[in-house]
């Protein structure tokens, strides 16, 4: 993967000629994979560089399905402290493809296999020289690691899903947005600000059984979907603990209209491809909700909860007197 602005994706040589050409460079990696790779009649080697990073990286990988993708110079594509977004996007796209299709293609870095891990994001996905490598699936993660934290922080919206206990009742899903309203508090702990709204199904369901799923989708850049499954609780604005939790949000918008804070203990972290999620441009946050609640006093908001949020759509009490 060379750090330049032109992308050249091309089909290269048959397996025997290919190995003859670079065997001395990759050393033990070539010898370790040689028997498996020569079982194929031919291999496709795409030289992936920069430019139209995500779609062209996908194109290179697609051509390599059933064979091998050769990556030259992965390290300089995104060296430490690099600010080239195309390099980061190319690596993120490639890593995701490696995770989702690890049984469909072999990916090697001939010239710099011994330091591929130096490129941010590559270290956990690359076999060291002389060691037979199988990509570790990252569909289910042990925790919310740095990469996932960065992905979550970059998304301008997320979705919340809950459901009542038992076979009856209504499953609820709500979109959430506004910068500064979601925070990762630990490897297995997150929280978000719940503003006053016409429904309060999430609060009702959490009071019932605590089950909750949060979903983040990439609408720009490399495709990805992250889901956080766990158990949540609602801390209403009327509770003493509310002020303490609110201090954990470093840069929230106007909090006057916040109804509760939803805190989630995450017991399952997963991601998936998101290939069918559309590409959409983010223009900015709406300020309608903040302006609407800004015209209401604390007493007005209390009355709003009493009237609008007394019970759930299934009749479960929420803010009933």
From TrEMBL:
Nucleotide-binding among keywords: yes
Taxonomic superkingdom: Bacteria
UniProt key word Nucleotide-binding: yes
Molecular function terms, GO-annotated: ATP binding
Domain Pyridoxamine 5'-phosphate oxidase N-terminal, residue spans: 145-272
Entries under InterPro entries matching the protein: CbxX/CfxQ (IPR000641), P-loop_NTPase (IPR027417), Pyridox_Oxase_N (IPR011576), Split_barrel_FMN-bd (IPR012349)
Matching Pfam families: PNPOx_N (PF01243)
Keywords for this protein: ATP-binding, Nucleotide-binding
Protein name as it appears in the record: Pyridoxamine 5'-phosphate oxidase N-terminal domain-containing protein
């Amino acid at each position: 993967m060379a750090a330049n602005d032109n992308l050249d994706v091309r089909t290269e040589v048959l397996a025997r000629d290919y190995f003859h050409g670079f065997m001395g460079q990759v050393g033990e990696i070539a010898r370790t994979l040689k028997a498996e790779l020569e079982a194929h009649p031919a291999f496709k080697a795409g030289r992936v560089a920069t430019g139209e990073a995500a779609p062209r990286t996908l194109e290179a990988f697609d051509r390599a399905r059933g064979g091998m993708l050769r990556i030259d110079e992965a390290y300089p594509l995104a060296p430490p402290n690099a600010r080239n977004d195309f390099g980061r996007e190319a690596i993120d796209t490639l890593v995701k493809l490696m995770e989702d299709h690890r049984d469909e293609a072999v990916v090697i870095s001939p010239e710099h296999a011994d330091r591929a891990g130096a490129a941010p994001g590559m270290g956990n996905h690359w076999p060291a020289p002389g060691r037979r490598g199988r990509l570790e699936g990252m569909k289910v993660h042990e925790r919310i690691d740095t990469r996932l934290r960065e992905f979550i922080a970059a998304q301008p919206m997320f979705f919340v899903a809950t459901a009542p206990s038992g076979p009856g009742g209504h499953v609820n899903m709500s979109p959430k947005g506004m910068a500064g309203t979601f925070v990762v508090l630990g490897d297995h702990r997150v929280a978000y600000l719940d503003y006053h709204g016409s429904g309060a199904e999430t609060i009702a369901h959490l009071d019932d059984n605590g089950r909750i799923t949060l979903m983040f989708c990439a609408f720009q850049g490399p495709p990805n979907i992250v889901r956080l499954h766990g158990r949540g609780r609602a801390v209403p604005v009327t509770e003493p603990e509310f002020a303490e939790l609110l201090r954990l949000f470093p840069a929230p918008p106007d909090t006057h209209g916040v109804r509760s804070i939803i805190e989630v203990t995450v017991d399952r972290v997963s991601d998936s491809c998101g290939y069918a999620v559309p590409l959409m441009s983010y223009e900015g946050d709406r300020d309608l909700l903040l302006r609407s609640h800004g015209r209401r006093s604390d007493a007005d908001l209390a009355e709003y909860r009493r009237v609008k949020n007394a019970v759930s759509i299934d009749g479960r009490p929420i803010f009933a007197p």
